[in-house]
């Protein structure tokens, strides 16, 4: 029933095509995580050995097959130990997909989202001002991820997003300026929050703790993190572990617009009081 076509002696079924496609996606995503790291060489080594094992088995070379078979037996445990960081990031990547998130389904069906207004103007204007004055800032913007756990590490605020409040939070002498502010459901949820630091060894040494915390947060969640560097006044945005540096206010606005839904963009187009 599931028969598709055959190439010579090979019968290809639909399920085989699907199988190959899924394995391809898995290998590609894992490759993306380990690319540029030492783990990539280990990964290629593992793959080569596995393909050799398959060839040896198919050609019925008994001795080599049993030696490689022993290695493959412990290979899975060895891989878990060797790739523990990468596997953790890979599982987080799967787990943070919007499809597994109730907030995503709520927004898809319009539940609880009718009153959500993202004041993008205020975010962009205050970011521009903080960049001009080299005021350090770290803002987590979450559409789908529940932020309760992170908000609890700081001080709960729960107020409308406004330029004045953002500037007050990150003002150098403010008791709230340290750590990250969390924006959730169109509101400022908390400030002075502690974010998880990334363990990625590829992060350049020139990026300090603020940037490392932003990257760490984006690895475990589907949030967008906005950074203003105290040292250089540069604006950066971090998403899915990738950092885009040296953004202009226009580019910042565009990336915020892309992240927030079309539906919310329309709402944002209505002028809002700061
Ligand atoms: N785990 C964390 N969670 C949230 N904020 C953090 C965390 N670690 C550091 N920070 C923030 O980063 C600030 C220190 O930034 P640091 O100078 O080390 O980083 P940086 O990436 O070089 O940034 P900048 O370019 O602004 O100097 C701290 O004062 C604190 O506000």
TrEMBL record:
It comes from Bernardetia litoralis (strain ATCC 23117 / DSM 6794 / NBRC 15988 / NCIMB 1366 / Fx l1 / Sio-4) (Flexibacter litoralis). InterPro entries: C-di-AMP_synthase, CdaA, CdaA_N, DisA, DNA_integrity_DisA_N_sf, DNA_integrity_scan_DisA_N. The keyword Transferase applies. This is Diadenylate cyclase. Gene3D superfamilies: DNA integrity scanning protein, DisA, N-terminal domain (3.40.1700.10). GO terms for biological process: cAMP biosynthetic process. The keyword Ligase does not apply. GO terms for molecular function: adenylate cyclase activity; ATP binding; diadenylate cyclase activity. Belongs to the adenylate cyclase family. DacA/CdaA subfamily.
